[in-house]
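Researcher: Let's do a round of design. I'm pasting the structure tokens now; please hold your answer until I've finished.
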């Protein structure tokens, strides 16, 4: 896909993950002079989107996000519907999107996969004006993300588990109405989790929607009701062995469009980033909307 004349822009979040990044060093080793490349560092939230938009105008052949799922989301937002493909070098803590694409979490291996990879078009999700590559949700997952990002104790699996346990104990489900495929008939739910998945997993390989694919033109809607702390502890292993959909209280739907009405505005998560969502949430899929560079073997 690339040759010595190809130009690649690497957009790096230097704060991603559990430790300091040294992007220039690993790119000189992993990429070297096999292509022409430039490196830019993000400085604030949303900066990666602007850098990616500028990169397209500057005529780069590919734009590579180096960071966690939040950074990938920002770069992906700029490239949806465009001809320029997005590459991924995972450097975050959860790395949900990279795992879904089969990209190595070893940055040097990921560089080799990038140079030898091929481009393919995948779906992306939308909730309101926001884009998600992996998942978005309006239940316990949103609360866990909110706690996680407010925690000054750092990143990694342990804080994620800690906030999930705390969230289960304190979370109170509220009534929501779901309208699938613009139907006038509502499905009433009281979800502990209401997660809309483009890929199968949250970060760390926690598989919320086994079998979900970003190439099928639909979103997987996972609704979990009645999730007590006891039930969560008994079934937590199902998140990591691909059987979470067999957990008591779990219902799954497939939809290209989904409207969720809840009593009031509240937290949502979009690719693991916590934000505030409206009382009415409109989800949709953009089939084949993003070109990505993926391993060919």
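Researcher: That's everything. Go ahead.
Model: Designed sequence:
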């Amino acid at each position: 896909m690339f040759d010595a004349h190809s130009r690649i822009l690497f957009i790096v979040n230097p704060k991603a993950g559990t430790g300091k990044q040294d992007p220039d060093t690993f790119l000189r080793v992993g990429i070297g002079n096999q292509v022409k490349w430039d490196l830019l560092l993000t400085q604030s939230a949303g900066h990666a989107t602007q850098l990616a938009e500028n990169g397209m105008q500057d005529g780069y052949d590919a734009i590579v996000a180096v960071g966690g799922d939040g950074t990938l989301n920002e770069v992906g937002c700029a490239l949806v519907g465009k001809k320029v493909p997005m590459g991924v070098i995972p450097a975050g803590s959860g790395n949900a999107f990279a795992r879904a694409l089969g990209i190595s979490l070893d940055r040097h291996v990921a560089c080799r996969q990038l140079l030898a990879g091929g481009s393919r078009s995948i779906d992306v999700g939308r909730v309101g004006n926001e884009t998600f590559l992996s998942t978005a949700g309006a239940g316990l997952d949103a609360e866990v993300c909110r706690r996680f990002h407010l925690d000054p104790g750092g990143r990694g699996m342990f804080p994620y588990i800690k906030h999930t346990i705390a969230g289960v104990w304190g979370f109170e489900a509220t009534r929501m109405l779901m309208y699938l495929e613009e139907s006038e008939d509502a499905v009433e739910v009281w979800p502990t989790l209401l997660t809309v998945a483009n890929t199968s997993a949250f970060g760390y390989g926690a598989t919320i929607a086994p079998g979900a694919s970003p190439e099928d033109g639909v979103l997987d809607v996972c609704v979990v009701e009645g999730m007590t702390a006891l039930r969560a502890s008994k079934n937590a292993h199902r998140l990591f062995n691909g059987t979470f959909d067999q957990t008591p209280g779990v219902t799954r739907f497939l939809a290209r469009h989904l409207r969720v009405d809840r009593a009031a505005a509240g937290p949502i998560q979009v690719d693991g980033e916590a934000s505030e969502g409206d009382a009415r949430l409109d989800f949709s899929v953009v089939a084949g909307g993003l070109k990505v560079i993926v391993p060919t073997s």
